[in-house]
Structure formats: C-alpha cells, structure tokens
Amino acid sequence: QGLKMYKETTGLVPRLLKLAKQFNCFYLEGSSNGESCLPFIVGSEQVGVVRPKVASILAHYPDVFQVNSGYITLVPSLDGYDKRTKAVDAVLRDCKEKGVFLALRGWRDECYEIKRVFSSESLFKMDRSATCLFGICNYGVTINGYVHDPRLGLCLWLQKRSLTKQTWPGKWDNMVAGGLSVGHGVLETAHKEAEEEASIPPELLKKIISRGSVSFFYESERGVFPNTEFVYDLELPLNFVPTNNDGEVDKFELLPTKELIERLFSPEFKTTSCPVVVDFLIRHGIVTPDNEPQFPQLVELLHVPLQSLY
C-alpha cells in the first residue's frame, strides 16, 4: 500500500518516461546539433552512423576511409577482418595521440567486435572507447543483485564507480556490469564481471537468471551510443555484502525501492545504466500500467529496435 501511494502521489511513470527520453535522445531526436549523420558502411553492410565532425577528421586518412557526400566507408582494399582491424586501429591511435577525439581519452586496450547485428559475422574489431565515434552497437551484461528484506521489502544493490574510471567517474551504477569484449560470451562475461566487481562466489552465481535485454540509443559529447544490455537477476542472501576486486568500484549500497527510485533521478546516477533499473522495477511489479496511460511508451523505450535500425 505504501509503494502504491508513493507511485500515485509522485506521477512515477511520467517521470520515468522523461528519463527514458534522455537515454534515448539520439533515437528520438537525432544528433543534438541538428546535423545529419553519415551511414558507416563496411563491405556492403551498414554498421553505424558517423557525425559530420568525426567524418571530416577521418577524411584526413584516405588510405583507410572514403568519405562521400552520403556515407563513409573503408577503402575496398581493406577486404578482411585482420586488414580492417589493423588499418582502423592505426588511425585511431594516431587520433588518440593528437587528442582530436574526447572519446579516445578513455582508451581501454580492450576491443569490441564490429558487426551489423549480434548474430552476424564480425567484420573487424575496434577499441571499445572508439565505437561511439562510429555509432556502432555495443553489447554488455548487467546483473541486478537484490534481496527481499523482511522489514524494508525489495532492495537492490548499487555500486558507486571509482573516481579513476575513464567514463562516468564517481557515478552510481548497477551492482555488476561490463562490456562484451572480443572472445567472451554473454554468460561468461556475467560471471567474470561478478567476480571482479563484486566478489560474488561461484555457488551464488549458479542462481543468476537471464531476464532478457534492454536496448537504447543515447548521445553525449563523446559520441553516439546504440547499446544493448543483457540482463540477469540474482537474489542474494541478506547477509551477503559485495566487495570489489578490481579497483573500479568505490563502494556498494543496498537501497529499498523508494530510495532506489529517487537515486535513479539524481544527476549522480549514470544515465546509460538507468534502463536496466527501470526494467527491473517493471518486472518486479513496482512500476505497473495501472492508471498509467504512458506505460506502453515507457516499455517501448527500453527496447529500441537496434537490430533492425541500420
């Protein structure tokens, strides 16, 4: 009853819908500066979109990129995975040295596969920090660690990101999350990140349950982010407290639902981690369609059709 009253008095779904529009700003409105992005074509497939300013810089590398009036592509001689990977990497490292792209300040020496859709064969690989320059779909894994507290009800663990993180330093985030790097599967990544970020032991990880995915299309000053997150739920024992192993987390906090919702609206929460939390609140019956005519719009904005967008 208390949660229901809280929802009704604060207009929760309209507030969440406003938040969903923020993390889907590119999908809904296109580039913030009003410019038309160029399709990025590799072989015969579109794998991304490139903002005009980025395209103008890539035009200085004609041995790798062909920049036309209507699209940008790789030169035809780069006709295989290894050739493309090597050539594009050389350009990006040169751009990093020259400091021309904000995104490359977060260089990770960790690559993502570049493909049209998740099921496609990979065309080449690229440092994860650079994919937003090309509007390439990224894939990640998130684990919702939650408990049913007898006094507080449903509670969710959050982490506060380390101040040394290349992106979103010091922001609140999901308990466990990580990108899908070259050579790692979805469940494998979930287990790896759970151990590194939260010291979750194997016997507890046996209980994680796949809960589908969320997808959204965000833009920031760093670039364009079409993201899909594979989502897992993990009910944890009341006495379990996550601890960090890799130096990338400042601290963890367990929040009851009401506090979680307010934290979600805080500028201290990582914008691109909001979709997973909203999805969690819907699936666990905290956010419902009862007397909420905008509920279908909210759900749609958690599942942007990225696999058929290009």
TrEMBL record:
PROSITE patterns: NUDIX (PS51462). It holds the Pfam family DUF4743. One of its GO terms (molecular function) is 8-oxo-dGDP phosphatase activity. PANTHER family: THIAMIN PYROPHOSPHOKINASE, THIAMIN PYROPHOSPHOKINASE 1. This is Nudix hydrolase domain-containing protein. It comes from Rhodnius prolixus.
